[in-house]
Amino acid sequence: MNSKAPSVLSFVSLLAIVACSKAAPPAGGQAEADAAAPATKAATSAVAPTAPAEAPSAETPAPAPKKYARVLHTGDSMVGGGLARALGPKFEADGTKYHRDVIESGTIHEFSQNDHLPKLIASIKPDLILLTLGANHVPHSIDPEKEIGPYLPKLLKRVAGIDCYWVAPPIWKPSQAKFNQWLREHVAPCRFYDASALDIARRPDKIHPNEKGGEVWADDFWKYFKGPGAFVEGAAGGALLAPDAAAP
After folding, report:
1. Of 78, 223, 240, 245, which has fewest CB within 10 angstroms of its CB?
2. Longest dimension (CA), the chain
3. pLDDT tens-digit series, residues 60-102
4. C-alpha span between 147 and 235 (Å, rounded)
């Protein structure tokens, strides 16, 4: 009996050691291991996804005013003298052939009815037209709507499909400003340019610009032509470089 006691005791001790080894937590303690797991997940989820690389931003170039091959500048005696002499070299330097045509005492009625303008267009084939008309109506005009209203649409139809500027008469009395205002509202799709506010030197008749006055007039028109009133390259519908409200 006593001889078997040590063996039983040894067996019980062995079982206790095995049980303790299974129950013991890993090095550092189970509590530390459990706490580390959520921290690892949080750190992983906090990493932001890589944003796609942005395309390099390039500034859109400003639209360029259109270039023309041939311009027809026609109208009354205001076309002659300083205006045409100053405008011609500007267009030529821009690569545009400048054709000047003057009808002394020319009127909107005549340009809308006789065959002079259609023949000019057929001969020159302009891609730009400047109409300088109205000076012979200004001194006598009382009601433009009745006097020239029926004729203006016929004239505008003759230049349809061609870029066009209506160069309003340089009025010589403040009371004449209402005539140009009426023109402004009725010459579309031509662009309207008005030099009424300019101080233009004139001939002894105090009506027609002299050489210096024509230069001032031409310079101011050119700023409008190349700036706020410009037709833009590649734009549909004759878009402006800037709102036409900026027209003089």
Report:
1. 245
2. 155
3. 777 889 999 999 999 999 998 799 999 999 999 999 999 999 9
4. 36
Within 10 Å of residue 43's Cβ, how many Cβ atoms?
A: 9
Greater confidence (21 vs 167) lies with: 167
| Residue 202: pLDDT over 90 | yes
Q: What is the pTM of this model?
A: 0.73
